[in-house]
């Protein structure tokens, strides 16, 4: 088996005097889609935010390609696409302007792919409309278009299918499977029943927490 891309070693997190997880250990490998499960409030979002470098409320180690993330923060961020709960788009900008803004942060992105990406998420004809005039699902689709542009190997996606209709979910599931087939890695949470179940490995925070690393 290939070396792990990401390793979580004895992770501990407490919020408001409540331990969310303790001794959390798992690894994620290239080509994997890993679904983080657990009941509401078990800490799925918290975990994904920690792994994305957005929260420091933890103890323990996170390794990226065998080295502590803390020692390679910038390099790690360049390898990561994070998709959080918020729509992640600027309301005043159009769909196309949002993607141009996103592309400006990553010189590896091909600007020629912006129009095809918007087409792929079903926003053909909506490219020039400010996002505050789009629906909730359309705003999520603008954000999801980043998946078609990103060259990052690690995608961390928190509830990526919220407010997306059935057809949109199917297209996005296919995209995740393609990313994994190319050797990319996906970590996601979702309360949706996934059609891509056979491609997914699951970890459950309620079960994993409290088990120390071997
Ligand atoms: N910024 C914060 N400050 C204090 N407590 C927080 C903060 N963010 C989350 N928590 C607490 O941490 C716990 C875990 O929240 P989290 O959002 O990670 O759960 P989750 O598993 O993603 O839940 P859900 O399935 O409902 O989305 C909750 O009890 C929440 O109240």
TrEMBL record:
Keywords: ATP-binding, Cytochrome c-type biogenesis, Membrane, Nucleotide-binding, Translocase, Transport. GO terms for molecular function: ATP binding; ATP hydrolysis activity; transmembrane transporter activity. SUPFAM superfamilies: P-loop containing nucleoside triphosphate hydrolases (SSF52540). One of its GO terms (biological process) is cytochrome complex assembly. It holds the Pfam family ABC_tran. Residues 6-214 form the ABC transporter domain. It comes from the Bacteria. InterPro entries: AAA+_ATPase, ABC_transporter-like_ATP-bd, ABC_transptr_haem_export_CcmA, P-loop_NTPase. This is Cytochrome c biogenesis heme-transporting ATPase CcmA. PROSITE patterns: ABC_TRANSPORTER_2.
